[in-house]
Design brief:
heterodimer; A: 247 residues; alpha/beta; Nucleotidyltransferase, domain 5; 5-stranded mixed sheet; globular; B: 353 residues; 2 domains; 11 helices; binds adenosine-5'-triphosphate; binds magnesium ion
Amino acid sequence: MKILSISTATNQLSVALNEDQRVITEKNERDERNHSEHLDPLFQEILTENKLTLKEIDRFAVAIGPGSYTGLRIGVTTVKMFASILHKELVGVSTLQALAAGALSDQDLVIAGIDARNDNYFAGAYLDQQEQAPICVIDDGHYHIDTLLAAIKKYYEDHPVKELVFVGSGFEKQQKLLEQLEIPYRFGTQKQNEIHAGLIGQLALQEKPVDADELLPKYLRRTQAEADWHQKTGKPFGSDRDYVEEV
Amino acid sequence: MINLDSKKDIRILAYESSCDETSTAVVKNGREIESMIVATQIKSHQRFGGVVPEVASRHHLEVITQITRKALEQANVTWNEIDAIAVTYGPGLVGALLIGVSAAKAASMATGIPLIGVDHIMGHIMAAQLTAEIAYPALALQVSGGHTEIVLLKDPTHFEIVGDTRDDAAGEAYDKIGRVLGVNYPAGKTIDEWAHRGNDTFHFPRAMMEDDDYDFSFSGLKSAFINTCHHADQIHQELNKYDLAASFQAAVVDVLAHKTIRALKQYQPKTFIMGGGVAANRGLRDRMEHEITLLPENIKPKVILPDLKLCGDNAAMIGAAAYNLYQDGKFADLTLNADPSLELPYADSMLNE
Ligand SMILES: Nc1ncnc2c1ncn2[C@@H]1O[C@H](COP(=O)(O)OP(=O)(O)OP(=O)(O)O)[C@@H](O)[C@H]1O
Ligand SMILES: [Mg+2]
């Protein structure tokens, strides 16, 4: 099965072509602006180099979040359209699971995170499962560093692991708090700290495809405006779909 | 003579997502709407009293694949019958624009159908093309939530701004004074209705009306309006909301009409067009039509006012403008990006000021 996979979740743009488990090519580009200009040309480059057309791709995979909201939407919109128009399979993979997958090793607990500023992180913790996808033991969420570390400590007390591995962005600046955990830990290498579309493709192989209409980013956070409105009015958030009407 | 019947029909699938409406449409030959889907988010943003960009972007993504399919289904066509895919790439909210742009580019890549990027304001003006044929040169009064411009159309793709607002746009002014009167966003339609039930008793200022240019200013009017309301509040005086609305609308329509008529006299276009959400305003439509009937016969332009449902944001107008760009061979490639501050070019007369 040919899988084309992407991540636009961070300022690293990553696109890969996999044949089943094997990564055929992966292209990475650092891109401080939104990924709109570079994503499709990068796809085109991979397809041309491999003498393929989009129609020959069997499954599309995308980092579905958490991550930069705008970035996520560019990636998700693109593969939704591909899958919907070409009637191909579509899979969304957790950005954090994909990050963790690059740093797994036996007996370690991998904490994957994306800096969300002010000591907040989009983060989750994962364990190696050998042949299978890494298993999530602390749910992907938006955490203050204190909350995250408390959850890690609690997990460690019940399930001692050899070492903690922090991958992603923004953990280095928390070194003082990490020392206080008194659990052996290390940071990911530069390569591990970046999201690799090849890994997304591998994880996507084990997932059940979803309906292209239904695939939406996992932002893991409501907007400030909605949170304020909810607090002010006490009204339930309601389903997003109920707010959009055809006229 | 070219035999028009033997020419192949050009069908364009268009996307619009610059603000709080996600829309798709199939337009034939730039004139005929074969389908138009508009998914509006107004209900969502009414919670906040105005459009919240991040919320808007999220909603656009929720419907994009569904409304693509629907536009094709309702037009009863397949991708094979589509000659170009068009999309608004600016101006507007960047996150919102990016959904349409990403979707249109992906669709173009998946199908091999060429891509056309369209300026949203060119789109608003070209809504007129869906109502009647435009003779060039034409002059347009573009009045919407973010723009108030007098635009000279030299031909179907070369537009020039000859007059512009120096501060608030007309629609923005309607929405702001609407808020003071407790009217839900977007307020224009309700204020228009109220205006027809009241009289101009407040005589608000008509800014820049006699100035020797085609520019506008609405912030003074807005302040005068707000001050009047606040003052009445302080002395516990109840003002008639219909008269307030009528007075506000009279001031807006007066300046818009006065300056537009002067521009018509100077540029003497073959067609006069109105575009944008405020072009749905009954007071403004009636006034412009009436004033134009008073122009001397030799400079009286043909008047095209778009259908009410085509004044607000929609993809059909984008498809209409895209047809003209298609005829001109103006295509985009896969590097197309959203440009939130895209502007039509200014006329030299504006730049030399
Ligand atoms: N009947 C009416 N009278 C006056 N204003 C109206 C009327 N109907 C709608 N409007 C106003 O039109 C505006 C919306 O128009 P439109 O959707 O064209 O603007 P926009 O897309 O937000 O901005 P722009 O097109 O300038 O980027 C709102 O400000 C609304 O209040
Ligand atoms: Mg508009």
